[in-house]
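Task 17 of the worksheet. Students: predict the tertiary structure of the chain below and write it out as C-alpha coordinates. Keep your answer in the requested format; marks are given for formatting as well as content.
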Amino acid sequence: MSEGTPGDKPAGVALAGGQQQAHRRALYRSAMTITVATVLVAAVVVSSAYLILRRDRGSASGQDLRASGIPPSVSTSLANLMSLTPVPGARAPGFTLTDQQGRTMPLSSFRGKVVVLEFMDPHCTDICPLVSDEFIDAYHDLGTLAGRVVFAAVNVNQYHAAVRDMALYSGEHELSTIPSWHFFTGSVPRLQSVWHAYNIEVEAPNPDADIVHTSAVYFIDPQGREKFLASPMVDHTKTNQAYLPAGQITSWGRGIALIARQLAR
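Model answer:
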Protein backbone atom coordinates (compact mmCIF):
# COMPACT_ATOMS: atom_id res chain seq x y z
CA MET A 1 0.00 0.00 0.00
CA SER A 2 1.50 3.31 -0.99
CA GLU A 3 2.10 5.89 1.70
CA GLY A 4 2.00 9.68 1.42
CA THR A 5 4.95 11.73 2.47
CA PRO A 6 4.89 13.04 6.06
CA GLY A 7 2.58 16.00 6.37
CA ASP A 8 0.59 15.18 3.25
CA LYS A 9 -3.23 15.18 3.62
CA PRO A 10 -4.73 12.31 1.62
CA ALA A 11 -7.14 13.31 -1.15
CA GLY A 12 -10.79 12.95 -0.22
CA VAL A 13 -10.15 12.34 3.49
CA ALA A 14 -10.62 14.84 6.28
CA LEU A 15 -8.03 13.61 8.77
CA ALA A 16 -8.19 14.31 12.48
CA GLY A 17 -5.60 16.39 14.30
CA GLY A 18 -2.27 14.99 15.38
CA GLN A 19 -3.36 14.24 18.94
CA GLN A 20 -6.53 12.51 17.80
CA GLN A 21 -4.71 10.48 15.15
CA ALA A 22 -2.09 9.41 17.69
CA HIS A 23 -4.83 8.21 20.01
CA ARG A 24 -6.56 6.31 17.19
CA ARG A 25 -3.33 4.57 16.25
CA ALA A 26 -2.71 3.59 19.87
CA LEU A 27 -6.23 2.23 20.21
CA TYR A 28 -6.53 0.42 16.88
CA ARG A 29 -3.37 -1.64 16.76
CA SER A 30 -1.83 -2.57 13.41
CA ALA A 31 -3.24 -5.86 12.16
CA MET A 32 -0.27 -6.60 9.91
CA THR A 33 2.09 -7.26 12.84
CA ILE A 34 1.24 -10.43 14.71
CA THR A 35 1.91 -9.12 18.20
CA VAL A 36 0.19 -10.10 21.41
CA ALA A 37 -1.22 -7.03 23.16
CA THR A 38 -2.42 -6.73 26.71
CA VAL A 39 -5.44 -4.43 26.34
CA LEU A 40 -8.35 -6.39 27.81
CA VAL A 41 -6.51 -9.64 27.03
CA ALA A 42 -6.84 -8.94 23.30
CA ALA A 43 -4.97 -10.89 20.62
CA VAL A 44 -4.44 -10.47 16.92
CA VAL A 45 -5.83 -13.41 14.96
CA VAL A 46 -4.61 -13.98 11.43
CA SER A 47 -6.37 -16.16 8.86
CA SER A 48 -5.58 -16.72 5.21
CA ALA A 49 -7.90 -14.02 3.94
CA TYR A 50 -8.41 -11.50 6.77
CA LEU A 51 -7.04 -10.02 9.98
CA ILE A 52 -9.15 -9.21 13.00
CA LEU A 53 -8.78 -8.25 16.63
CA ARG A 54 -10.50 -10.52 19.12
CA ARG A 55 -10.39 -11.19 22.86
CA ASP A 56 -8.69 -14.22 24.39
CA ARG A 57 -11.73 -16.37 25.08
CA GLY A 58 -9.57 -18.85 26.97
CA SER A 59 -9.09 -16.47 29.86
CA ALA A 60 -11.71 -16.71 32.59
CA SER A 61 -10.89 -13.22 33.82
CA GLY A 62 -11.32 -11.85 30.29
CA GLN A 63 -14.93 -13.04 30.27
CA ASP A 64 -15.67 -10.84 33.30
CA LEU A 65 -14.12 -7.66 32.00
CA ARG A 66 -16.47 -4.96 30.74
CA ALA A 67 -15.26 -1.70 29.25
CA SER A 68 -16.83 1.43 30.67
CA GLY A 69 -19.34 3.07 28.32
CA ILE A 70 -20.87 -0.04 26.76
CA PRO A 71 -24.68 0.38 26.59
CA PRO A 72 -26.52 -1.48 29.37
CA SER A 73 -28.62 -3.25 26.73
CA VAL A 74 -25.48 -5.05 25.50
CA SER A 75 -24.59 -7.93 27.83
CA THR A 76 -20.99 -8.49 28.85
CA SER A 77 -20.92 -11.81 27.00
CA LEU A 78 -22.18 -10.15 23.81
CA ALA A 79 -19.69 -7.29 24.18
CA ASN A 80 -16.90 -9.85 24.55
CA LEU A 81 -18.13 -11.80 21.53
CA MET A 82 -17.95 -8.60 19.45
CA SER A 83 -14.71 -7.36 21.08
CA LEU A 84 -16.71 -4.18 21.54
CA THR A 85 -14.71 -1.11 22.55
CA PRO A 86 -16.03 2.39 23.26
CA VAL A 87 -13.97 5.11 21.59
CA PRO A 88 -13.66 8.73 22.72
CA GLY A 89 -16.06 10.31 20.24
CA ALA A 90 -13.52 11.72 17.80
CA ARG A 91 -14.85 12.99 14.47
CA ALA A 92 -14.95 10.15 11.95
CA PRO A 93 -12.59 10.90 9.05
CA GLY A 94 -14.57 12.19 6.10
CA PHE A 95 -14.44 10.78 2.58
CA THR A 96 -16.25 11.08 -0.73
CA LEU A 97 -16.67 7.82 -2.67
CA THR A 98 -19.10 6.15 -5.08
CA ASP A 99 -21.54 3.43 -4.02
CA GLN A 100 -22.85 0.33 -5.81
CA GLN A 101 -25.52 2.36 -7.61
CA GLY A 102 -23.03 4.86 -9.01
CA ARG A 103 -23.96 7.60 -6.52
CA THR A 104 -21.00 9.71 -5.39
CA MET A 105 -21.53 11.11 -1.91
CA PRO A 106 -19.59 12.26 1.14
CA LEU A 107 -19.78 10.53 4.49
CA SER A 108 -21.11 13.82 5.89
CA SER A 109 -24.32 13.36 3.84
CA PHE A 110 -25.41 10.84 6.48
CA ARG A 111 -25.38 13.35 9.33
CA GLY A 112 -28.46 12.89 11.47
CA LYS A 113 -28.26 9.09 11.11
CA VAL A 114 -26.18 6.38 12.71
CA VAL A 115 -23.57 4.87 10.37
CA VAL A 116 -22.38 1.28 10.77
CA LEU A 117 -19.19 1.21 8.71
CA GLU A 118 -17.19 -1.85 7.64
CA PHE A 119 -14.37 -2.54 5.15
CA MET A 120 -15.07 -5.34 2.66
CA ASP A 121 -13.63 -7.15 -0.34
CA PRO A 122 -16.23 -7.66 -3.10
CA HIS A 123 -14.51 -10.91 -4.09
CA CYS A 124 -14.17 -12.22 -0.54
CA THR A 125 -15.36 -15.73 0.29
CA ASP A 126 -14.14 -15.62 3.89
CA ILE A 127 -15.31 -13.21 6.60
CA CYS A 128 -17.07 -10.59 4.44
CA PRO A 129 -20.12 -12.73 3.56
CA LEU A 130 -20.57 -13.52 7.27
CA VAL A 131 -20.51 -9.83 8.18
CA SER A 132 -22.99 -9.25 5.36
CA ASP A 133 -25.39 -11.74 6.99
CA GLU A 134 -24.92 -9.96 10.31
CA PHE A 135 -25.77 -6.61 8.70
CA ILE A 136 -28.98 -8.05 7.25
CA ASP A 137 -29.96 -9.51 10.62
CA ALA A 138 -29.21 -6.16 12.30
CA TYR A 139 -31.34 -4.29 9.78
CA HIS A 140 -34.33 -6.52 10.51
CA ASP A 141 -33.74 -6.37 14.27
CA LEU A 142 -33.89 -2.56 14.17
CA GLY A 143 -37.55 -2.59 13.17
CA THR A 144 -39.00 0.92 13.01
CA LEU A 145 -35.58 2.46 13.76
CA ALA A 146 -34.03 0.97 10.59
CA GLY A 147 -34.64 4.19 8.67
CA ARG A 148 -32.34 6.04 11.07
CA VAL A 149 -29.34 3.74 10.47
CA VAL A 150 -27.03 3.57 7.44
CA PHE A 151 -25.11 0.36 6.71
CA ALA A 152 -21.97 1.03 4.68
CA ALA A 153 -18.71 -0.56 3.62
CA VAL A 154 -15.56 0.66 1.89
CA ASN A 155 -13.90 -1.55 -0.72
CA VAL A 156 -10.47 -2.98 0.18
CA ASN A 157 -9.78 -4.73 -3.12
CA GLN A 158 -7.82 -2.47 -5.45
CA TYR A 159 -8.03 -5.04 -8.27
CA HIS A 160 -11.83 -5.12 -8.17
CA ALA A 161 -12.76 -1.50 -7.62
CA ALA A 162 -15.42 -0.92 -10.28
CA VAL A 163 -18.94 0.10 -9.30
CA ARG A 164 -20.13 -3.10 -11.00
CA ASP A 165 -18.06 -5.18 -8.53
CA MET A 166 -19.81 -3.49 -5.60
CA ALA A 167 -23.22 -4.03 -7.21
CA LEU A 168 -22.58 -7.72 -7.92
CA TYR A 169 -21.47 -8.42 -4.36
CA SER A 170 -24.39 -6.45 -2.90
CA GLY A 171 -26.87 -8.43 -4.97
CA GLU A 172 -25.26 -11.82 -4.40
CA HIS A 173 -25.28 -11.40 -0.63
CA GLU A 174 -28.70 -9.69 -0.50
CA LEU A 175 -27.31 -6.48 0.98
CA SER A 176 -29.34 -4.64 -1.64
CA THR A 177 -32.41 -5.57 0.41
CA ILE A 178 -31.25 -2.97 2.95
CA PRO A 179 -32.53 0.40 1.64
CA SER A 180 -29.74 2.29 3.41
CA TRP A 181 -26.90 0.02 2.18
CA HIS A 182 -23.90 1.67 0.48
CA PHE A 183 -20.84 -0.25 -0.76
CA PHE A 184 -18.32 2.46 -1.58
CA THR A 185 -15.43 2.39 -4.01
CA GLY A 186 -13.24 4.85 -5.86
CA SER A 187 -9.79 5.32 -7.32
CA VAL A 188 -7.03 3.31 -5.67
CA PRO A 189 -5.28 6.40 -4.22
CA ARG A 190 -8.55 7.59 -2.72
CA LEU A 191 -9.35 4.16 -1.27
CA GLN A 192 -5.87 3.95 0.20
CA SER A 193 -6.40 7.32 1.83
CA VAL A 194 -9.59 6.10 3.49
CA TRP A 195 -7.92 2.88 4.66
CA HIS A 196 -5.11 4.91 6.17
CA ALA A 197 -7.49 7.33 7.90
CA TYR A 198 -9.38 4.44 9.54
CA ASN A 199 -6.23 2.43 10.34
CA ILE A 200 -7.21 -0.39 7.98
CA GLU A 201 -4.20 -2.39 6.83
CA VAL A 202 -4.51 -4.03 3.41
CA GLU A 203 -2.15 -6.51 1.79
CA ALA A 204 -2.88 -7.23 -1.88
CA PRO A 205 0.23 -8.67 -3.54
CA ASN A 206 -1.45 -9.50 -6.87
CA PRO A 207 -4.92 -9.89 -8.42
CA ASP A 208 -5.02 -13.64 -7.76
CA ALA A 209 -3.90 -13.58 -4.14
CA ASP A 210 -6.19 -13.39 -1.13
CA ILE A 211 -6.74 -9.85 0.09
CA VAL A 212 -5.54 -9.65 3.69
CA HIS A 213 -7.11 -6.76 5.57
CA THR A 214 -8.11 -5.49 8.97
CA SER A 215 -11.74 -6.31 9.71
CA ALA A 216 -13.40 -3.68 11.88
CA VAL A 217 -16.87 -2.26 12.36
CA TYR A 218 -17.10 1.42 13.28
CA PHE A 219 -20.25 2.82 14.86
CA ILE A 220 -20.63 6.53 14.02
CA ASP A 221 -23.26 8.62 15.78
CA PRO A 222 -25.66 11.10 14.09
CA GLN A 223 -23.19 13.92 14.77
CA GLY A 224 -20.47 12.13 12.79
CA ARG A 225 -18.43 10.97 15.79
CA GLU A 226 -16.94 7.52 16.25
CA LYS A 227 -18.49 5.92 19.33
CA PHE A 228 -17.73 2.19 19.25
CA LEU A 229 -15.41 -0.24 17.48
CA ALA A 230 -16.13 -3.95 17.05
CA SER A 231 -14.02 -6.74 15.56
CA PRO A 232 -15.79 -9.35 13.42
CA MET A 233 -14.81 -12.96 13.89
CA VAL A 234 -14.78 -16.15 11.86
CA ASP A 235 -13.85 -19.81 12.26
CA HIS A 236 -12.73 -22.29 9.61
CA THR A 237 -13.41 -25.92 8.85
CA LYS A 238 -10.63 -28.43 8.29
CA THR A 239 -10.89 -27.61 4.59
CA ASN A 240 -10.39 -23.91 5.41
CA GLN A 241 -13.98 -22.94 4.64
CA ALA A 242 -15.12 -19.91 6.60
CA TYR A 243 -18.13 -20.33 8.87
CA LEU A 244 -19.79 -19.22 12.08
CA PRO A 245 -22.55 -21.06 13.92
CA ALA A 246 -25.93 -19.57 13.05
CA GLY A 247 -26.40 -18.56 16.67
CA GLN A 248 -23.28 -16.39 16.62
CA ILE A 249 -24.33 -14.65 13.40
CA THR A 250 -27.70 -13.94 15.03
CA SER A 251 -25.98 -12.65 18.17
CA TRP A 252 -23.74 -10.36 16.14
CA GLY A 253 -26.73 -9.01 14.25
CA ARG A 254 -28.55 -8.37 17.52
CA GLY A 255 -25.47 -6.65 18.97
CA ILE A 256 -25.09 -4.35 15.96
CA ALA A 257 -28.76 -3.44 16.20
CA LEU A 258 -28.56 -2.76 19.95
CA ILE A 259 -25.62 -0.39 19.56
CA ALA A 260 -27.17 1.37 16.55
CA ARG A 261 -30.47 1.70 18.43
CA GLN A 262 -28.68 3.28 21.40
CA LEU A 263 -26.94 5.83 19.18
CA ALA A 264 -30.12 6.63 17.22
CA ARG A 265 -32.00 7.75 20.34
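Marker's comment: The chain has a mean pLDDT of 82. DSSP finds seven helices and 15 strands in the chain.
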